[in-house]
Each structure stands twice: as C-alpha cells, then as structure tokens.
C-alpha cells in the first residue's frame, strides 16, 4: 500500500483508496492509504514544529532541493506520465507534457528561491531608513484537484517551499498516485521531516480537519461551491486563502478569422484533455458572417476525433476521469436537447475494447445564452456554439457569465484583438490560440466567480506564499 507522508515517515491508513484506470477498470493502478482527522492534525503539527528551522534555511538549500526534484521529475517524465495517464485518463502525450511542466515548475521556483527581493527606502523622517521584506506565511494547506494530478500540486507546493513555508497537501481522492510520486521525490530530494506532508483520503473528513488544525494559509483548486464554503470558513478563522474555482470560457470567432486556425483552436480548447480543464472553451461564440462555414467544419473535425485508451497512440481523446463525471456530462447532453439546442455530433457513452468511462465529444449548435450548457461549467467534452450578430454582440455574449478565468478570440484584425484583450472580463486572454494552455512562469488566475485571492504561478506566486514586513531603522 502507498502510505501518507507525515513528519518524514510513511504512515498507513484504512480504508484503502483503490486507484483504477478510467481507460480500463480492470487495471488497478495501486492501493493508497486513507488518512484520518487525527493524521491531519499530526501533519499540521509536524509542519508547525519544523517551520522555524525551514523558514530560516538558506535560499541555496531550498533551491538545491527544488532543483533536484525538478531534475528527477524530468528524467522520469515517461514513467510518471504513464502513471498519470493510467490514473486520470489523459492521453499519454498530454500526460507526459503535464509531468514535464511539473518538473519545469520546480526548476523555475528553485531560481525564485534565490531571487527574493526587498526594498530599502528613505523615511520621511531624517535619519531613518525603511526596509520592506517578504517572509514566509507559515503552514500552508494545499487542496488539489483531480484533472491535473501533478502539475497543480507542483505549482502550489514549489512556490510554497521556495519561500520557506511548510506544506500539508491533500490531493484529490480520485488521483492519489501522482501526488504520492511527487511526495516521494521531494522526500528523497532532501526535505527535512515535516516540511512537506501528504495526507490522502476523503475531502469531507480531511478538509475540515485541515482548517481546524490551525494552518496559516489555504490554496484550493476545485468547484465553485466548495471554494465558496472554504472562503467563508477561512474568513471566520483568519486564514489567508487563495481559490481557483473554474470557468465557462468563451472563444470568440470573428468574421475575419482564418477558418482552419479557428477550428483548431476550438477543437483543442473544447475537447483535448477530454474537456476536463478549467480553461476549456466550452462556449464558442461565432459571428454571423463565418458561422455556417465554421460550424460545418467544426462538426466534421469533432466527429472525426478518435476516442480511446489513454495509452493507445491512436487516441486523441481519452476517457472521462470517473463514472460520476461521465454521468454529469451525459446529463448535460440531455439538458441541451431538452432546451432546444441542436446536437450536431457525439454525446454518447462509448463501448470500447476495455471497460472505461468513454464518451464521444458532443457539439451543440443553435444555443442561447440562457441554456444550462451555455452557462454552467460542465467539465467534460461538451461544447456549445452561440451565433452572434457581429463583434459587439459577440463580446457582450462572451462577458455574459458569472465566471472570468480565460477568454479567446480568433481574428486577423489587430484592432479587434486589442479591443478584445482590453474588454474581455477574464484574467487571461488568448488571441488566435486555444483558451486552454498556459505557461508556468507567468501568473494564472481569473476574475468574478473563477478566482479569489492572489494569482498562482510565476513571480506573482510570492503574493500568496509570503507576507510583507516593514522595518524602520534609526541611523
């Protein structure tokens, strides 16, 4: 059994989490220990006890450990990518790409550990100088989702450790394997006992226990409903909080868009990774002049996508991650039909050579802004096409959402691209690119109901994982 990591020791727990391959339900990836509320308290206590020493460790010590972890992740990217594909269902090339990104994140933050900056200012009073510096927050709880089982744990834990915090990570119960592999790598890279703790199991048990145990900050990626509850709980306890809660991201196709480029952006953004990305473009807003040609070509490309086993080199789309997620996807197909949208292709559960959670990508046209498939995050391979009269109408439709994570436009006009970049109500804007797909060295996050608190990734990660201290020096 793969155990929890608490205070530098591997600790078992029951019941076992049976990690099954969504491409082949007869393939058991492994058994993983479930932690109890008492285990969570022990993990937080261990992090608290070791924080004074770790927070005062040298930047070089932290950089060396993170760099070693990044190097091992990159050296094992095929092995770890295969593990990720087996437990989450991404196609193998996507899974290997995610692992490589995790390694690059650790190496980037190894550098950030050495690049911490401050400010020295003259006071308004004579003979006084002001030093502004950053210090680690303390014990940070990390709750990570199932759709990026190593990249998101990496982009949360790497900056937390780089800036001198201690970590208690609770990965999604559906995909413990990649998080366990990351914990094992960090343990062997030389982290002192208690600096990084991995606590696996039920979110209903471990989430409240994490907050009750007395952490200083919480970074969460998951559903909007859970995020809102955590925000309220953290506010009541005075815990610093960072939330990423999804999106309903628009891809605007202007009349002057290059057709094949626009279709490729839509296919990638809506259906790759089985649509299980918070940045997926599940609302495709198409201007009247290009609408019919675009929709015809998009339907042709969507129907031709090859759904199959994640490890099959012929597969373009892997399985849905779980039975519950598949049921939710299919229920949205039913809602779309009931609301009067036209199902152009897909939307069926598929029976393939191995038992798995397979679904054909669903493409709807004739959608209106009020339909559930146009407004609610589905988190699966279901895309809704809305017709717009012109660019201004399309922009209004793009912004007509309670979410604001990512937004994209396909156009050959610099003027339209510039206008959209400035007026799209989203934290990230893509021009002639899929809405899904971001770099690890720049800030990630959104507006409105998508995000709360400081941005993740890049130099902006310091805003969450550090606190500012102002010191006055009398000369």
TrEMBL record:
Ranges of residues in domain Aldehyde dehydrogenase: 16-470
Q: Which domain of life is it from?
A: Bacteria
Q: Name one Pfam family in it.
A: Aldedh
InterPro entries this protein is in?
A: Ald_DH/histidinol_DH (IPR016161), Ald_DH_C (IPR016163), Ald_DH_CS_CYS (IPR016160), Ald_DH_CS_GLU (IPR029510), Ald_DH_N (IPR016162), Aldehyde_DH_dom (IPR015590)
Q: Which UniProt keywords apply?
A: Oxidoreductase
Q: Which SUPFAM superfamilies match?
A: ALDH-like (SSF53720)
- Which residue positions are annotated as catalytic? 244
Q: Which Gene3D superfamilies match?
A: Aldehyde Dehydrogenase, Chain A, domain 1, Aldehyde Dehydrogenase, Chain A, domain 2
| Cited CDD domains | ALDH_KGSADH-YcbD
Which family does the UniProt entry place this protein in?
Belongs to the aldehyde dehydrogenase family.
> How is this protein named in the record?
Aldehyde dehydrogenase family protein
Source organism per UniProt? Vogesella indigofera
Q: What is the lineage of its organism?
A: Bacteria, Pseudomonadati, Pseudomonadota, Betaproteobacteria, Neisseriales
């Amino acid at each position: 059994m793969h155990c929890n990591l608490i205070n530098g020791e591997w600790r078992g727990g029951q019941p076992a989490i049976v990690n099954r391959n969504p491409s082949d339900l007869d393939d058991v990836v492994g058994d993983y220990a479930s932690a109890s509320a008492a285990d969570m308290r022990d993990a937080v206590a261990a992090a608290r006890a070791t924080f004074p020493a770790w927070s005062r460790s040298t930047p070089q010590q932290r950089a060396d450990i993170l760099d070693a972890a990044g190097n091992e992740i990159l050296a094992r990217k095929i092995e770890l990518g295969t593990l990720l594909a087996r437990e989450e269902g991404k196609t193998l090339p996507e899974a290997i790409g995610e692992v490589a990104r995790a390694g690059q994140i650790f190496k980037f933050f190894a550098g950030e550990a050495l690049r911490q900056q401050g400010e020295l200012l003259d006071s308004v009073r004579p003979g006084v100088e002001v030093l502004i510096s950053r210090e680690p927050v303390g014990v940070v709880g990390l709750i990570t989702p199932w759709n990026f089982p190593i990249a998101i744990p990496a982009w949360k834990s790497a900056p937390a450790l780089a800036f001198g915090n201690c970590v208690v990570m609770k990965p999604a119960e559906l995909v413990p394997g990649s998080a366990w592999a990351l914990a094992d790598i960090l343990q062997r890279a030389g982290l002192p006992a208690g600096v990084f703790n991995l606590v696996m199991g039920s979110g209903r048990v471990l989430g409240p226990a994490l907050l009750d145990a007395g952490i200083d900050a919480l970074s969460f990626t998951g559903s909007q409903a859970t995020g809102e509850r955590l925000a309220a709980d953290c506010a009541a306890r005075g815990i610093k909080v960072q939330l990423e809660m999804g999106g309903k991201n628009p891809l605007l196709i202007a009349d002057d868009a290059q057709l094949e480029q626009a279709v490729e952006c839509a296919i990638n953004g809506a259906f790759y990774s089985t649509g299980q990305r918070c940045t997926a473009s599940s609302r495709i807003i198409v201007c009247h002049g290009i609408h019919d040609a675009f929709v015809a070509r998009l339907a042709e490309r969507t129907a031709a996508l090859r759904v199959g086993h994640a490890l099959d080199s012929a597969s373009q789309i892997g399985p849905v991650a779980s039975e519950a997620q598949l049921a939710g996807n299919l229920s949205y197909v039913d809602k779309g039909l009931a609301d009067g949208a036209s199902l152009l292709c897909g939307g069926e559960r598929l029976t393939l050579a191995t038992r798995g959670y397979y679904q054909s990508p669903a493409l709807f046209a004739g959608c209106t802004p009020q339909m559930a498939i146009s407004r609610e995050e589905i988190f699966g391979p279901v895309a809704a096409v809305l017709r717009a009269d012109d660019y201004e109408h399309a922009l209004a439709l793009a912004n007509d959402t309670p979410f604001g994570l990512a937004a994209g436009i396909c156009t050959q006009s610099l003027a339209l691209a510039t206008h959209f970049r400035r007026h799209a109500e989203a934290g990230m804007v893509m021009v002639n690119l899929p809405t899904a797909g971001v770099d690890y060295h720049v800030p990630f996050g959104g507006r409105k109901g998508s995000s709360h608190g400081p941005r993740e990734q890049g130099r902006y990660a310091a805003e969450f994982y550090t606190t500012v201290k102002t010191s006055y020096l009398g000369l």
